[in-house]
């Protein structure tokens, strides 16, 4: 289980994440939602150890991650928000480098890389430079890199970004399959329909604070709202979206 | 005056002005600078260096006037320097004058004519060449006019006009030739091939300019120029054509050398016409082609080999480094720059020895040149490795950092040894084939290997990072100063060591003593670095000197800038 206890991150005294506590359990997909700038990606980066917390603790399987960060990183798979890759490498070179950095046995990792590239439909372009890849292809490389070592904890920050319909459907099923196999999956996305279909519970963040943490069913019942979108709008969207759209149209019409 | 300039600028079409502003900032190959590079600052530093050179040459001419028979030598040197600088500009602005995919995608759907884009790009590139011409010659040109005018104002003005015309003509010739080459390559080859060939061609052009500058014989005396033995060289060397042109315009060219000036005129005309045709055709034809052709180059059919280098971490870091060095234009050009210097020094030092027929005894020149190759190869590589390839992609190294820093630094050491010291040693071994006796050659190569190890350990000091991953702060001129200072000091040391080694080479005990001393120095440095690495943290960003700015918004207070103390520590 992944557990965040009163985690905060401040940038020059401005709170980006403020006193956040929640759990993500094995066997279920936890959705982590919030508007732009609410602190989702900052939380993800703290969980990966990329940035340090200002306060609080993160535990994985009952132990603070800082206690043995290297052992924790061995069990972690991460897909970042932006598809930032080394563009001068090919997909196969990039994945081989990740496997080597993770100290995976050469033969097994080579087989896995080959298999993942085939399943993600990248095999034909595996030797082409990543600089020429589309956004969706880059996203697939990131997914392959995150899954290469069969991690126990999978952090997905906007994993559907740039994927075509077929690949998105595969990924949706894959996320559920991985959770069903006992992995902890924390999944952040703006696509609420997908979240509603994939996640068993959601944590909603607004201005760095948690405003909801429950299963979608219970939230629907509690708030008497039919969809996750309606729940999200009520909890985390401040402006009148229709009025704002009208204003934009009026502005360019003037 | 100010209003007149404003009115004149206002007459220039707005799209042209906007594009020129953009292209002026992008005129330097974006890949050839660090990610957040400050182009105006870079250009300022570039101009500053050229002005300094010009002033030094002017002072030299005014205070130590050359004898009359050395006049052509000075002119030749001015032309050579100018052509080298313009050639290097041609290399760093490689592809910048031609439409790239980014231009096509960003400007293609806007109501901007191709002609406007072409003119704006050409003006931007021309501005950089103009800056170089002016700054490199403004002081020295006037000083030489005074010296060579022999007290006559008319003669001085005549020389000045001829000098400036020739300098501009020679620069235009070379820059136009580089543009024509790139343009015809873009026209004749598919975009995919152009992407592949362009990088290699850029390197070859760089090597050509450097080697011509360093290796071309200097024939600055009239007797040498009219000697039939040198005719082949003069026929194919543009610098001598323009020397002929300068003296033709100056009225001092002997009739038997008129053909040099004729070649200059023809060369200039051909280069200009070719560049104009290539540019026009590129803008008319290849802009559309660029959009239609995919950027994704299938890699099938090539060599896809990932060699192992010991443990998996070392393999990952070494393969990553080799690929970065080969595939990144920024790193490749910089690496080629250091190696060109090393090769030029080596070749000029051993040229005489290599022309001899039978293998001979080792000379101080050979020993010095091998030490200098080693110095520049190792420290040049360190400088190249300090430039990042993609800061945004470094997250993967952090997330996968499963081993202690010492293991990463061992891999970095492997990079320095394999890509810095080993090629230098290999080159020295090849050069050593001309020398005897074998025992002395072997002893020297053993010494050189140990020196390479020592240099690698020195290069490792303060380098607690994976090559090509750490941020490089733009405009860090002091880094260059420190680097060249270090190379200068080490080169002096190399000469000293070479002189000593040459003296004691025949004495086995002395050589053994040197080997032991160097091995001990290397081992001590290695041990110190290892000890430091045990407690070091791998870093991916240069520490930025923090400055806290107090806005002082209360009435009567001023803005203050101070060094951080406890506040920065809290952050």
Describe the structure in your own words.
The complex is a heterodimer of chains A (254) and B (571). Chain A has 254 residues and is α/β, with parallel strands linked by helices. Chain A has 2 domains: 2-75 and 151-253, 3-Layer(aba) Sandwich (Rossmann fold), CATH 3.40.50; 88-150. Chain A has helices at 40-48, 69-74, 91-101, 106-119, 135-147, 165-180, 192-198, 216-223, 228-236, 241-253, and strands spanning 2-11, 14-24, 29-33, 55-60, 63-64, 76-79, 153-157, 184-188, 201-206, 209-215. In chain A, the strands form 2 sheets. Chain A has a 6-stranded mixed sheet, sandwiched between helices. Chain A starts with a strand and ends with a helix. In chain B, the strands form 2 sheets. In chain B, strands 1-2 form a two-stranded parallel ribbon. By secondary structure, chain B is an all-alpha fold. Chain B has 2 domains: 16-292, no CATH class; 312-546, no CATH class. The model of chain B is unreliable at 30-36 and 555-571 (pLDDT under 50). Chain B is built from 21 helices and 4 strands. Classes of the chains: A alpha/beta (254), B mainly alpha (571). Chains A and B meet through α2 and α3 of A and α13 and α16 of B.
């Amino acid at each position: 289980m992944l557990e965040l206890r009163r985690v905060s991150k401040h940038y020059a005294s401005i709170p980006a994440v403020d006193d956040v506590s929640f759990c993500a359990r094995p066997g279920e997909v936890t959705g982590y939602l919030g508007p732009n700038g609410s602190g989702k990606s900052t939380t993800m980066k703290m969980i990966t150890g990329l940035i340090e917390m200002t306060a609080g603790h993160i535990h994985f399987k009952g132990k603070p991650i800082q206690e043995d960060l290297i052992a924790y990183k061995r069990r972690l798979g991460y897909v970042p928000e932006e598809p930032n890759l080394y563009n001068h490498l090919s997909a196969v070179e990039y994945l081989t480098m990740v496997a080597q950095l993770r100290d995976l046995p050469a033969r097994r990792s080579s087989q896995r890389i080959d298999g993942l590239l085939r399943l993600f439909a990248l095999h034909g372009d595996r030797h082409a430079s990543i600089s020429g890849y589309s956004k969706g292809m880059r996203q697939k490389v990131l997914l392959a890199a995150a899954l290469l070592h069969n991690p126990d904890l999978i952090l997905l920050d906007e994993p559907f970004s740039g994927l075509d319909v077929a690949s998105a459907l595969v990924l949706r099923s894959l996320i559920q399959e991985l959770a069903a196999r006992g992995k902890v999956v924390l999944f952040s996305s703006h696509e609420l329909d997908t979240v509603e279909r994939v996640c068993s519970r959601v944590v909603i963040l607004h201005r760095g604070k948690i405003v909801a943490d429950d299963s979608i069913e219970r939230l629907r019942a509690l708030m008497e709202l039919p969809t996750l979108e309606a729940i999200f709008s009520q909890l985390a969207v401040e402006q009148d979206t229709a009025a704002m759209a009208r204003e934009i149209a009026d502005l360019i019409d003037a | 005056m100010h209003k007149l300039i404003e009115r004149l600028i206002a007459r220039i079409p707005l799209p042209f002005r906007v594009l020129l502003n953009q292209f002026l900032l992008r005129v330097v190959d974006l890949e050839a600078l660090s990610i957040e590079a400050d182009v105006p600052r870079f250009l300022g530093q570039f101009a500053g260096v050229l002005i300094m050179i010009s002033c030094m040459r002017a002072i030299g001419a005014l205070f130590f006037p050359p004898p009359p028979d050395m006049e052509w030598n000075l002119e030749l040197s001015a032309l050579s320097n100018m052509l080298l600088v313009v050639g290097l500009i041609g290399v760093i602005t490689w592809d910048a004058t031609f439409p790239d995919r980014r231009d096509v995608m960003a400007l293609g759907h806007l109501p901007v004519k191709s002609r406007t884009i072409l003119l704006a790009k050409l003006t931007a590139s021309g501005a950089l060449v103009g800056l170089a011409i002016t700054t490199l010659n403004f002081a020295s040109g006037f000083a030489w006019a005074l010296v060579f005018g022999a007290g006559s104002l008319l003669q001085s003005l005549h020389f000045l006009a001829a000098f400036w015309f020739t300098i501009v003509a020679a620069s235009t010739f070379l820059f136009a030739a580089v543009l024509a080459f790139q343009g015809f390559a873009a026209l004749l080859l598919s975009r995919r091939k152009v992407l592949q060939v362009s990088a290699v061609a850029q390197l070859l052009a760089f090597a050509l300019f450097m080697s011509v500058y360093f290796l071309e014989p200097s024939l600055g005396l009239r007797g040498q120029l009219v000697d039939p033995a040198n005719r082949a060289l003069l026929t194919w060397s543009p610098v001598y054509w323009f020397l002929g042109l300068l003296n033709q315009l100056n009225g001092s060219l002997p009739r038997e050398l008129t053909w040099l000036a004729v070649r200059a005129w023809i060369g200039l005309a051909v280069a200009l016409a070719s560049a104009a045709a290539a540019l026009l055709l590129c803008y008319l034809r290849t802009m559309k082609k660029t959009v239609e052709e995919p950027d994704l180059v299938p890699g099938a059919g090539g060599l896809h080999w990932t060699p192992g280098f010991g443990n998996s971490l070392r393999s990952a870091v070494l393969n990553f480094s080799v690929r970065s060095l080969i595939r990144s234009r920024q790193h490749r050009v910089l690496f080629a720059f250091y190696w060109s210097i090393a090769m030029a020094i080596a070749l000029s030092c051993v040229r005489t020895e290599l022309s001899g027929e039978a293998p001979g005894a080792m000379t101080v020149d050979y020993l010095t040149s091998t030490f200098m190759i080693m110095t520049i190869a190792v420290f040049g590589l360190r400088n190249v490795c300090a430039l990042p390839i993609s800061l945004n992609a470094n997250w993967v190294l952090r997330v996968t950092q499963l081993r202690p820093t010492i293991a990463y630094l061992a891999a970095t050491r492997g990079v320095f040894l394999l890509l810095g010291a080993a090629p230098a040693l290999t080159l020295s071994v090849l050069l050593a084939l001309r020398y005897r006796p074998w025992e002395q050659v072997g002893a020297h190569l053993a010494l050189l290997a140990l020196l390479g190890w020592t240099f690698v350990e020195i290069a490792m000091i303060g380098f607690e990072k994976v090559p090509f991953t750490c941020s490089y702060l733009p405009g860090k001129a002091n880094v260059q100063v420190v680097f060249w200072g270090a190379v200068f000091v080490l080169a002096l040391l190399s000469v000293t060591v070479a002189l000593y080694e040459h003296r004691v080479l025949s004495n086995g005990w002395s050589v053994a003593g040197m080997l032991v001393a160097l091995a001990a120095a290397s081992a001590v440095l290695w041990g110190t670095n290892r000890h430091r690495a045990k407690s070091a943290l791998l870093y991916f960003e240069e520490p930025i000197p923090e400055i806290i700015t107090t806005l002082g918004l209360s009435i009567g207070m001023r803005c203050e800038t101070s060094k951080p103390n406890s506040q920065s520590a809290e952050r």
